[in-house]
Every structure is written in C-alpha cells, then in structure tokens.
Design goal:
By secondary structure, the protein is of the alpha/beta class. Helix 4 (139-166) packs antiparallel against helix 6 (200-257).
Length: 811
C-alpha cells in the first residue's frame, strides 16, 4: 500500500478555449439568459407559477448570489405576459356610512375613465341644475306653490287679527315677529295711566284676554310652520321632478360607459342610486340664497366630493398580469395605508387618501418578497399569515391609534386579493419557517430549490459564456475573449471545489467580470484577455490577504513555530482554513502528541479547555475508536495520551485534522519520527479509511506559501485523501512548482498508506502473535505492552499500602 504522487495535470482541470466555440462573447449577446445549471429549479418554478389551485405559492430556496431573484423575476414576467390583465381597484364614497368607503373592481383602464366621467358630471351638475331650475316653465309652478302658501298664510293671519280685535288688541308684524298692544273702548292705545284706572275685574279680564291671544298666536305660528313645510316639500318635490330626468340621463351614461363584472354590477348600481338620491335631497345647495353663501358653497363642495372616484390600483396600459417585487415589505408598503392631514387639533382624511400596497397592486399577478426582510417585522409577518390564510385584505392605519391628537379614522371595505406569492429564502430561513410556522409553510407547497453548484460540460460552458456576454452588455463593459472566458469557468470550478462542477453563485463570477473588464480598460483594449482575468484575481487577493500575510510574517520571524523539514517524533503539520467572510486562506497548524503509561486514555487538550467545536470533538472520538480497533488484542490499553494544536488560540472546529492527530499519536506511541515537510489533511472513520475534507485548495496553497516563504527544498508537499482528487483546482504557482519537482502532492486512501509515506516504516499486518516487531504498529504494540507491565508493577508496589489504609479505616 503506497501513496500516489499526483501529476501536474491532476491538480487543475484546464478549460480549452477552442471548446467554447466562439472567439468573443460579443457573438452571444443576443442569446437568451438561461437558467444555468438549475433545471430542477426552473421546472419547479414553471409548475408553481402555472398552478392556479390554492396553497401553491412558491418558496425559492438558495444561497445568495445564485440568481434566485433575477431568474425568478424574469420567469414571472415571461409567464405573466400570457395572463389576463387584472381589473382596476376603486374606492367610493359611502353615502350612509362615510367612514366605511366602498370597494369596486372595474376592467383595466375603466377606473380612470369612470373617475374622469364623474368629475365631468359633477361640473355639469353645478351649471345644469341651477339652469334647469331657472327655466321659464319652472317659475310659474314655483309661484303657484308660493301663492298657495301665501294665500293660506294670509287667511290664517286674518283670522288671528280678527280674534285679536275682538279682544281689543291691535296686531302687527315687525321683522317677522308678531307684536300686539291693548286698546281701550274707543279704540285708542291704552296708556299706563288708563291701565292704572281700571278696576281689578277689568285687569283680570285683560290678562285673560292676553293669555288667550298668546295661545292663538302659538296656534297660528304652528299652522304657518306646517304651511312652510308643505310649501318646502312641494318646492323640493317640484325641483326633484324637474331635475330627476337630468340626473337619470347622466347616470345612464355612466352605467353605459363602464362594464363591471357580474359580481360587481349590483355594487355599482347601488352606489349610483345612493348618489342620485343624495343629490336630489340637496338640490338647494345648487342655488344661491340670501343666507351665508360661503356655508352653502362648502356644503356643495362636500356633496360633490362624494361623487369622486378614487382609483387605488390603476392597471391602465398594463400588458398581462402584474409582477411586483417589494424590496421594503413594511406593513404600510405591503398592505397599504391611509394618509391624514392636520386640521387644527385633529387628523382628518377621506376615501381619496387610501393608498394600496404591494398585495393589492399585485392582484391577479405575482408578488416577489424576501423572507428575511419579512421576518424582521413581526407585525408584517403576522398580517401576511392572516392574508395567506383568508385571501382578504383590509387597508388600515394602525399608527392612528397611537396618534397624540384625535383622528378621523376610516375602515375601507375588505377586498379579495388573488396573488401568487414568491418568497425568496436561504436554506436556513426555509428550515426555520418549516419548523416554527408549519401553518404558513403548508401554503407554500411549491419549493424552488436553487443548487449551489452544477455539473460542468459543454452546455454549462456555453450558458456561462452567455451570462458573461449579457453582463458585459448590461454594464457596458468590453467583451471577453474565449481564453478569458475559459479562465472565468476555471475560477467557477474552483469556487465549487470540484473539477467537474461549477459554482452556481454567479454573483462572484459577475464581480470577476467587472474587475477583469476594468483591468482591460486600464490597458486601453476593447477585448478582455486571459491576462486581464489573471491580473484581476491577483489584485483581489492583494486587497484581501493582509491577514494571511501577517501569518506568513509571523512564520518567517519565528513567532509561529512550524518545522518544515527534518523528522520529529509525535509531531505532524496539519492544515486548516481561516474564513474571513470575503476571503479564505489555508493555515498550517502543528499537531503534537505525547503518550505514556496510564489508564485515562486519549485526552484532547483543546477539548478540555473548550477551544474545540462539536465536529472536532466527534473526530477525536472517531480517532479514539480507530486506535482501539488497531490494538483491540491488547485490551485494556494501559495508555494515557494527549493531543494539542500548537499556538492555536482562536478555537478549533471540523474533523479534517483527525488523520493528522492519529499520525502524531502513532508516531509518539511507536517512537518513530515523521517527515515534517509533508503536511496532512483528511478525516477518517473507525476502519482507518481517509475521507474527503473541504477547503482542500486553500489548505494546499496555504502550506505551499508557508514553504515558499521559508524556502522550498524539494521534499515538501501535502498528503490528501484520495477522494479529494476531483476537488483540486490549484493555483498556477502550485502546479508549476509540482511540475518542477519543488513541491509534491500525495493522495492516500487509508491511514496505512499515509503513515508509510511519513515514516518510511511498514504499517504492519495483525497476525496470531500480533503485529510484526519491525512494523510501525509492532513498535507501538511493544510500547503498549511495556506500558501495561509498568502499570501492573506500579499497582503491585502500591498494594501493601492500600491494604494498610483499609486496615486503619476498619479500626
């Protein structure tokens, strides 16, 4: 069993520019933007958008940068183009309950037509009604009613006057008031002196006559009020009779100009009838009067305001169904609201200040939201849950409840909103909703799962080139040559950590396109070449790798102790990855082990001081299991061993160092020194098989840079699991060093292969007598037996003392 030394061609899958089939991405500008590497997501999205049954909203799940929002919006727009245009949404004045505006839907474009017609009709009514009431054929009818009233009123007044005279009172009118005075027997006004000369009986009679006259005056006033009411009713009935044909003609034109759905016809008719009754009931407001005309004009304006139409959602000119992307899904933006004006110490509003939100604007179409932005607003999240459950939406303004002044509130009529919701989420957000809110999750039955990588191949390469071409066109960038595009594809495969797959995070590719084009423009060329892409990658590394440079400086200055040559016992160079969010780099870490006789078993110092994570702790336990299986024939083992990551203070996580830990442990146990110039990475199982690890390229390059900084001597290299071979997409400098024999990369399938490389000592096969004494496991077996004998001897020496203590305790 020997390790395989990898050749330069194994370390990087190069992309042949000729295989792309074009010389410049300029040739691909007119190609449609494909769903690169996302056939499952595309099929799921099409299914979900076409499904009209309830509960089939879409949950788009994928990493940021995979094109989940852009591609979904494009597909939604394509699908919406073949859908019918939804109706307009109108809010109308409620005559009987002004605080509860009515909602009405009309075919697209007819909302603004109705609004304009109602405005024009209100203007005509202001002129036509007074003109009609002032026509010659109307005046005689009005005079007839007035004369009838005056005649009846004159008769009643004559009767009252006769009654007054019969009781020696004179009666006259003074500015609308009735004034009476007492007269004597000669018909002369009674003076105070004459009144003083009257006898008590005459005074009593005079008071009685005055009281009866007052009662008669009260009856007269009541009768005249009735006559006035009859007159007013007669005049109002006459005016209504005269104006009604005018209004009916106007209303008929309105009805004929709009074509609501059958379900909305009754609502429109009822609203028009109520408006007609309201106008007929206030015809006096259309005519000037002798009273305060400003009050009349204000009342007329209020009446005509009720004839207005507020188009909350205007789909005029829309082609197909609406596609709305709400990037700020606050309560008001999503569900709408009501605007208020300050009027003295109050906040006032009316139905024309109702504002529709994204859900109403997306009625009949699609609404794209990001789940993360919803989750940070509990009120919006809870209201969305209710809307998804019922499909009904009522606009309200919750902030008015907490306003410091009194407010006139509105409660618009709830409306049904048929919206296909598309929620964009990360995998973690999706799992959280599934676990914490299953009721909402079951209403998003269609999951559109965006993969983070996809299989590379001719079609994927072509689609990637189309993406590059479209990006250049969108941002007005110079186009890319085939060689430059090939380097972009190689970088995508490196991002995917796989020679046969590409990364689906096209945001990173887009950024590299922009940076490479900027480098090309600085050279004043109109076509981006491979050297520009390479320069952009180096410039990006320079901008981000300051923390890595500090670590390399610490190595050259001796602050970090990392032997890179020679052999040491119980010491191995492991490989780790430091992730800084926007930049990751490999960092070699020295792993050391010490063993001696005892019964405590394996001790991980990093775990004891809580510097390790659960995955690393799991790796240590697997390592312990592997060790136990190797020496099961010697059980129980008389062993105490310690493992530590030298100069590691920020914490350890992951199991990719478990192989290096086992090598250090076996080296210490067998007393066999290991090559320090070969770093090790890989996890293992209980059977001793090496398993693949992540970040393999960064780990190799990190150790290479460390060796390069200290000086390559031709013996240095890295040992990786065989199963990681397909993940190698290494930097050109590493590949060049391997080609020159200055650096080496080995691949092993088992612990035995790796240990043979590091120690140059045979691994050893278990026989009837154990492992051969000249093998590495045989040497470890010998030391374990020595540990057992030493431990048994120590137990024998301590046994009398133990008996003595037991005797004293008994006494």
């Amino acid at each position: 069993m020997t390790c395989q030394r990898l050749e330069p061609q194994d370390l990087l899958r190069r992309m042949d520019p000729l295989a792309l089939g074009f010389t410049s991405t300029r040739e691909l500008v007119d190609h449609p933007l494909p769903w690169i590497g996302q056939p499952r997501a595309q099929e799921a999205a099409r299914f979900g958008l076409s499904m009209t049954l309830p509960g089939y909203n879409l949950m788009v799940v994928g990493q940021v940068g995979t094109g989940r929002t852009t591609l979904m919006r494009q597909l939604m727009q394509d699908h919406a183009a073949s859908c019918p245009v939804p109706p307009d949404l109108l809010y109308l004045h409620h005559v009987e309950q002004p605080e509860r505006p009515l909602a009405l839907r009309l075919p697209a474009g007819e909302g603004r037509q109705l609004r304009q017609r109602m405005v024009q009709m209100a203007r005509r009514l202001q002129t036509d009604i007074p003109h009609r009431l002032a026509e010659p054929d109307v005046k005689p009818e009005i005079e007839r009613i007035e004369q009838a009233y005056k005649g009846a009123e004159s008769i009643a007044y004559a009767e009252l006057n006769t009654y007054a005279q019969s009781r020696q009172f004179s009666l006259m009118r003074d500015e609308g008031r009735l004034v009476f005075s007492r007269r004597d027997d000669k018909g002369e006004p009674m003076t105070a002196g004459k009144a003083m000369s009257l006898s008590p009986q005459e005074h009593a009679q005079m008071d009685q006559d005055e009281t009866s006259l007052r009662e008669e005056i009260a009856r007269f006033l009541e009768k005249t009020r009735s006559l006035e009411h009859v007159r007013n009713e007669g005049l109002a009935a006459l005016k209504r009779q005269i104006v009604r044909p005018l209004l009916e003609r106007e209303w008929l034109e309105i009805r004929q100009s709009v074509h609501p759905a059958a379900s909305e016809q009754a609502g429109l008719n009822d609203w028009l009838k109520s408006l007609q009754s309201e106008v007929l009931a206030h015809l006096e407001l259309f005519q000037a009067s002798d009273e305060d005309d400003n009050l009349r004009l204000d009342a007329l304006e209020d009446l005509l305001d009720g004839l207005r139409v507020h188009v909350a959602v205007d789909n005029h000119g829309l082609q197909g169904a609406p596609v709305v992307q709400e990037d700020n899904p606050s309560l008001r933006q999503l569900f709408g609201g009501i605007e208020y004006d300050a009027d003295g110490d109050m906040l006032v509003t009316d139905f024309t200040r109702i504002r529709a939100g994204s859900l109403l604007r997306a009625h009949g179409g699609f609404l794209l939201l990001h789940l993360r932005e919803l989750l940070v607003d509990p009120l919006a999240w809870e209201k969305l849950r209710r809307f998804v459950r019922s499909g009904r939406l009522q606009i309200e303004e919750p902030g008015v409840l907490y306003a410091p002044v009194a407010a006139v509130s509105l409660a618009p009529e709830p409306v049904q909103a048929e919206v296909k919701l598309v929620l964009v989420a990360s995998p973690d957000e999706f799992e959280a909703v599934q676990a914490l809110d299953p009721e909402l999750a079951r209403r998003f039955r269609c999951k559109v799962d965006f993969a983070d990588s996809f299989a590379a191949g001719p079609q994927a390469w072509h689609d990637t080139a189309v993406f590059v071409a479209r990006t250049c066109k969108q941002w007005d960038l110079p186009h890319f040559s085939a060689a430059a595009t090939a380097l972009l594809i190689e970088d995508s495969q490196r991002q995917a950590q796989d020679q046969f797959r590409q990364s689906a995070v096209f945001a990173a590719t887009e950024a590299l396109v922009m940076e490479s084009a900027t480098v090309a423009r600085a050279r004043q060329v109109d076509l981006v070449q491979a050297e520009d892409v390479q320069a952009a990658l180096l410039a990006r590394m320079y901008r981000h790798n300051e923390p890595e440079e500090r670590q390399l400086d610490a190595l050259t200055q001796g602050e970090r102790v990392l032997p890179l040559s020679g052999r040491l016992e119980g010491s191995v160079n492991g490989l780790s990855v430091v992730m800084l969010g926007d930049y990751s780099f490999g960092l070699p870490v020295r792993v050391t082990a010490r063993t001696h006789a005892g019964e405590k078993g394996l001790l991980s110092i990093d775990r004891e001081v809580e510097l390790s994570g659960p995955i690393h702790d799991k790796g240590v336990l697997v390592l312990h299991s592997c060790l136990m299986s190797l020496f099961a024939h010697l059980s129980p083992l008389a062993l105490e061993a310690s493992l530590v990551f030298e100069q590691e203070y920020g914490g350890v996580e992951g199991d990719s160092a478990s192989c290096a830990e086992l090598f250090a442990l076996l080296s210490s146990l067998a007393g066999v020194p290991l090559k320090q110039g070969i770093a090790v990475t890989g996890s293992l199982n209980a059977s001793g098989d090496l398993l693949p690890v992540g970040g393999i390229n960064e780990k190799i390059e990190g150790f290479f840079r460390s060796c390069e900084r200290m000086g390559l001597d031709g013996t240095q290299g890295v040992l990786i699991p065989e199963r990681n071979r397909r993940h190698l997409m290494l930097d050109e400098r590493v590949v060049h060093a391997v080609a020159q024999g200055r650096f080496h990369i080995y691949a092993a399938s088992t612990v035995a292969e790796g240990m043979r490389l590091l120690s140059d000592v045979p691994w050893g096969e278990l026989g009837p007598q154990g492992y051969p004494s000249d093998s590495l496991l045989g040497m470890a077996q010998t030391r374990l037996r020595r540990y057992r004998k030493a431990l048994e001897a120590a137990d024998t020496r301590h046994e009398p003392a133990m008996h003595k203590r037991r005797y004293l305790n008994d006494r």
